[in-house]
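Listing 4. Sequential folding, example run.
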Amino acid sequence: MPRHTASLDEYTGEKRMIAFWKRNRSGANYATGTECTLEPGRRSVTCPGCKAVHGAEEAAAQLYVCPDCGRYMPVGARERLRMVLDDAAFEPWFEEIGTCDPLKTPGYPQKLDAAREKSGSSEAVTIGRGHIGGFEAVVGVCDPNFMIGSMGHCMGERITLAFERATERRLPVVLFCCSGGARMQEGIISLMQMEKTAAAVRRHSEAGLFYCAVLTDPTMGGVTASFAMLGDVILAEPHARVGFAGPRVIQQTIGSSLPEGFQTAEFLLEHGMEDGVVERSELKEELRYLLSVHPAPQDGPALRVLAPAERHFDFDGDELYRHRRPTAWEKVRLCRSGERATAMDYIFRIFTDFRELHGDRCFGDDQALVGGLAFIGRHPVTVLADMRGKTLQERVQRNFGMPKPEGYRKAVRLMQQAEKFHRPVISFINTSGAFCGIDAEERGQGEAIARSIQTMAALKVPTLCIFVGEGGSGGALATAVGNEVWMLENATYAILSPEGYSSILWKTESRAEEAANLMKLTAQDLAELHVIDRIIPEFGGATEETVDRIARIMRRGILDFVKRYRCMSGEDIEKERYERFRKF
């Protein structure tokens, strides 16, 4: 197939500006449902929100975000490529794939001609190869100016071919999604594109390759119900409208008004469907980061398998005994203190470039269980962490560190993603237990915990679990199935709280202190029982004064852990973990 490489300079400057305003001066703007007009005789644009008029060069410099009201203006395919790609050449693909008219719909060919004239694109999606921050990728952009980015045969075929070629060449895919839905004029053939594109995404994923979907305004209908929501990471631009059924259809069906902000990017983030909402000015850097964390798997000879390192109970010399050892009950109280360092305090000191990912892709984004991507040294890792919060407001927001089913399902999603991209999992545990409530039970709290334990046990990447505070029952175990398990000096880990133990055994909570001593819940007790592998000193207490020293010890230990497991096969990593827990 002949290859044509077009410089991105062809998409900039005077020609690009004129083409952009030609496409928008005709009136209705499909992406916003409002007008975005070119003033007669002037190269300027009117904001569809506040109606402020901006010069063409100013609008381009502002990435088509109104400086007065912040409204995001629609961006055509070429403008989008200019924004996110490096200055290197862009190689368009599949331009020869033309449209079809399977139903012979009257007036449809004329609509296609008008769409080509309006958008300057041959179809509703532009596909090709380019570089983002130095990383090669297959990049696709759905054009809102081409029949609202609606999906017909040609668009579905180009996207399917893009994933097939990306799979062959072992390249990641970044796809900017925008659509009003399936193209009515092509009827059921348009609907078939949903299955075709979804299947192509699955094959790309099974090859261990990365796909990032970026949702822009609007992303609706069949596109939402196929490739747009199947990314390993799903990002969205602020206030982008995203949904399956249109708001008017929903209102007519349910017979009532919709809540404010319904079907916006922010609404979906809150309900667990996206990993993040990213400002347009930050999008290129975010994509560069994601491509750096998700390299394509390398073909070649298998790694040499090394024997597992000899386990040791590391008490770090005399550091543990420079201060009076608190009693078990005192340690419980220390773990619950608002002065105690949180998992995030350690994460920001141990790792670089931590980026939180959100949502379980099912119901919500549980802020009691945080997950994301980071680097330690040159090694990308997946990080999980229970988060209690420090202030009362933050603790309420994070449900006092007690995860709900959506928290554990988010953890499962990120663990599976870590395995796909061969990233170690580092888990920080600090929870009194899983949330006990009607809504948690309705959404399957027990099943979610069981699935998390099962998933973590079977991972073929190394897992390191560190108790930095309280560890309560199955809610803690859900993210504590490690090849190695460490504890801070004053952390605790127990089958239930001392208050619960006392209440069940003695019918009163007043003997909680006595119960704590009986339960063998301290790090020292658990080291003797061989439940944990290492105790990390706190130098008197894990507070703001000591967190830097503690984090330095953790960082050295985690780096050593990652390096030791690098040369082990996935099967041996899983087997070692299985045997670790099998002995109990």
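-- end of first protein; second protein begins --
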Amino acid sequence: MLQLPRGYFAVQSDFENASKDTFVFRGVTYSVQEGVNLFGTILEAEEAVLTAGEPAPQSVLENLPYEAFSAPVLLFSTGVHRIDRYEFGGPRYLLGEGVGVNPNLPAEGTELPAFNPARTELERESVFYGGYSYGVLTVRKNEVTMVMIDGMTYQRTRFFDHRIAGDSESKMTFRNIVFTGESGHITNYFASPKRDSGIHREVRYENCRVEHYDDMEQGGVFLYPNARLTVLDGFCCNGTSQVFGFTDIARTRSNCTPNSDVTDLVIQNSYFRDLTGDHGISVNCHNAGERAVNLTVKDTVFYDACRKGESVLYPHLVNERCALRVSGCHFVDTRDNAAPAICVRGVGENIEITDCTVTGFAAELGKARMYPENAPAYIENYDKDWQTETEDAHTVIGTARADYTAMDSLYEGYRAYYGDQHCHTNCGGRSDGKFPMENWVEEMDKLDLDFAAIVDHRQMRGYFLPEWSEERFIIGTEPGSKLLNPSGDLKKETFHYNMLFPHKYGLAMLLANFPEFEFRGDELTGSFQYPPFTKERILELNDYILSIGGALMHAHPMALMGSTDPLDYYFGEHSHLEVMVGAYHGHRSFKSYDLWVKILNLGKHMFAAGGSDTHTNVTNACVSTFYAKERSGAEFLRRMRTGDYTAGAVGIRMCVDGAPMGSELAYRDGMILNIRVGDFFTHAFKPQTAYELRVYTDKGLAYASMFDGTEAQSVSLAVQKRAYYRAEIFDLTHGYRVAVGNPIWLDLAPLQEEQQQEA
């Protein structure tokens, strides 16, 4: 029997039931010693490498496609290897059973490369398996000058290179990797280095395959590179609902590596099919200045590689040095796509497209609409009535006829307050926040935050501490649960929810009426469990909380639960869905907003909410705007219960015939919708930006007009027979919503009864 040579470290799956003195890798059995060169986890193997200070192997094992190794080698047996938060201690080779075996077989023309049979059976694979908040392979040390991962299958596993400073040339290679399953996070992330740092990366993905990769409706990005050179060679993507790359949904992440004069992104000899995430493959380089970002695409097939009606490639040519080079590629769309195959953003004209075929697109190349940075100070509002040219056309009542008296009287004596509807503190007990509660109010003042909903997990302790502020805090807690009887197919079955109360004994009352929480202890030391719930019990929970003056919110709705039925996220009438999640431009905010609109259009009355879900420092990154007469946690909760507030950074005041946001009233002919927007939260406002006020109904966009955000705006519309009206503010220049107002619902039943009687 062969002895496993020095420099090799074996990691055995199902360690408890496996041999402790032999290790089988690629059909060869090696003699090993437990705790020396045989381990049950990657963490134990890494600790042994660091402790022993082992050099690179002096020989190459049989059947390994390498001539030599320059660093220690970790070998992974077949089977599942649980990944927690593994950190590379230095240069490493991580080799799985599929080392050297390309998962993609050669294909002709525009045919999908078949999955190599040698890689199709998971029981014969070395599988990295992670989870929602773990499953991360991380690089933090500048000593990690190279990483080679070859022959693995990834499930819920990510790679993060966090380095931003120091002096390190790093070559990171991912070879013969199969990515499958789901991940709502960025799957491959390389942090943006500081401009004066010596962090220089070369990142390569060679002969990899993405197979039916699901983003769990969170809008995760498969690849966000920040390297001097990034190459995808022999890459096959066969279906993903993620944003593939290279930036995020709102295109806020730049691909211009700050410490490199030129950033090169190369895709070659590859195949992309059924990309259903947003904007195909997109590049952003808003901070390039005079530096260049080049996108080169060669000998690659794109087959339905974008959402319907969108382009496949979205390069950002922000200056004349940035370049796009496309050659020998095939662009195919079977859905009669009205968009061009390639859509260029920016002013640059450094474009070369040669020897490409385009089928099913409106054109080969097009230019994206660039929104002005200097919008008018006021929205359009003519003296005479006029009709909007929108999906759901409406009459705009001109300024000469518009009457805002009823709306202004609703908010007389009110001012705008800004706060966070989802926060965690360090108040002791079971709380998992990091920032001490006693320092919160002082820090909130620095950030111009008026209030915060404190929803520490599993306890009520915080409300009874001397540092609790009735003026600045809303009382709450955030439990979790498992959904027992979903209507749709579940990919993930747990969820979190925020319960908010008008007084500090509200939670105690609820726990007494819902014994499944199993509360034990007193106000300061007690805690409760997270019980599973049926949908019926969730509705009962919502009804009870409303009955005692509280509110129920589905927090970060798709982070922990994944269902094909939007109503599995619905917690009952006048409950709340967290639509702004963490940041206005974040993936989850886009996806949660889309979910909320689906729920509204199914006829449900559910309010929009927002929050940072901070567990660390106080933040003003995701505020909501409330109009109130006084700064009081109880008053803010009252406004929240009515739905008359804005999830976002701009105040929206709106009414139909004197009924504000969140109201429900019967439709009648001659109704008028009045809207005022203003009171922009200072820290969220961007100068030289075009904002747009949008008004939606259940039939679509009813009104849209652009302004620069510096002045308050007003608009008045003639109401039609619609299920609801709502307003939002969109940042056109940067591509994301900054404020979402709650609907005013119209009951059409009386009108329908009247029409039936007349008939």
